[in-house]
Amino acid sequence: MGSTSRTEFPPVRACIFDMDGLLIDTEEMYTICANKILAKYGKPNLPWSVKAKLMGVPGSSTGEVFHAWASLPISREQYKQELREQQHLHFPNCKPLPGVEQLLAQLKVAHDVAGNKVHIALASSSEKYNFEMKTSRPETKATFSVFEEHRRVLGDDPRVKKGRGKPAPDIFLMALRTINESLGEGEKEITPEECLVFEDSVPGVEAGRRAGMRVIWVPHPGLMEEYGGRKREVLAGRIGLVPIGDEWQLGDLDDGWAEYVPSLEDFPYAKYGIDAGQRRVKEGAQL
C-alpha cells in the first residue's frame, strides 16, 4: 500500500538535505577519481549507465556493480587504496553547486506561512572522514556552517543502525528526530509530512518516500538522461536498485508527494508554504 494521493499538504517546517551531487559537486570528483585509476589500467571511462547504479548507494563505488563492469587486474583492496589516494587529492576541491549557498542562507532564516521557524538538517551517506575532506574548502565549509553539528547525520553516525543506509528511511527519520529534539520553547513537534527532502540520487528519493516525507529530486543531467523515461517511478520510490522489502513504505505513481526540479536555483518557496524573507525584503523596500 503506497502513500495516499495528495494535492494539498501542510506548510513545510523542516528541510532535510542529502549532500553529494546535491549541495556540492562530488559526483564530478568521484568520476574523476575513478577514471584516473581506470585509465592507469587501460580501461575506459566510467559510463553513466554504470555510475547511475552507484549513486546514493553506500559503499557502491568499490562494490560488486563497479567491479563486475571494470574487471580491473588488481585486487579490490588495492583499488580501494588507490581510490582513497585520488579522493585525498580531489575531494578538498569540492565546491557548492549553483543555487545552494543562497538556498541554505535563506532557509536558515525562513518561516512557514503560519510564522513557524523552518528547520534544516543534513542526511548524507558520506562518512565523517570523507565529509570533512569534501567540506574543507573555505567557501564550502562556510556553506555547511548553517547545519548545526548535532543535525548532521552521516553515513557512519552511531545514531543510525549499521546496514540501514539509503534506500532505508532511517537516516531521514533520524535527521527529523535531531530537529525535534532541539526545537525552541513552544514549538510543536514536526511530523514527516511537514518535511521536505532534497535528493539527487534514486535510492535517496526512495529513502525519503519510505520516511513518509515529501521529496524534491534534483538529479545530475547524466542521471536524468538514464532515468528520465522512468521519472514517475523514481518519484514514487519504485525503481528498486537496492531491494530491502517493506514495500508498504513506497509511494504510488503521481501521488503528489515528490517532484523533479532541474536545479536549486530560484527555488519556489511559496509553493511549499515557506516565507524565505523575499516578501519581507520587498515590503521593506517599499516603505
Q: What is the approximate shape?
A: globular
Largest sheet: 6 strands, parallel
Q: What structural category arises from helix and sheet content?
A: alpha/beta
Number of domains: 2
Distance from first to last alpha carbon: 53 Å
Fraction of residues in helices? Answer: 25-40%
Task: Tell me the name of the CATH homologous superfamily of the largest domain.
Answer: HAD superfamily/HAD-like
Strand content: 5-15%
In terms of per-residue confidence, which ranges show pLDDT below 50 for 5 or more consecutive residues? Answer: 279-287
CATH top level class name of the largest domain: Alpha Beta
Q: How confident is the prediction overall: mean pLDDT? A: 92
Number of strands: 8
| CATH topology-level fold name of the largest domain | Rossmann fold
Describe the strand arrangement of the main beta sheet, using strand numbers.
Answer: 4-3-1-5-6-7
Pfam families: HAD_2 (PF13419)
GO molecular function, one term: phosphatase activity
Protein name: HAD-like protein
Organism: Coleophoma cylindrospora
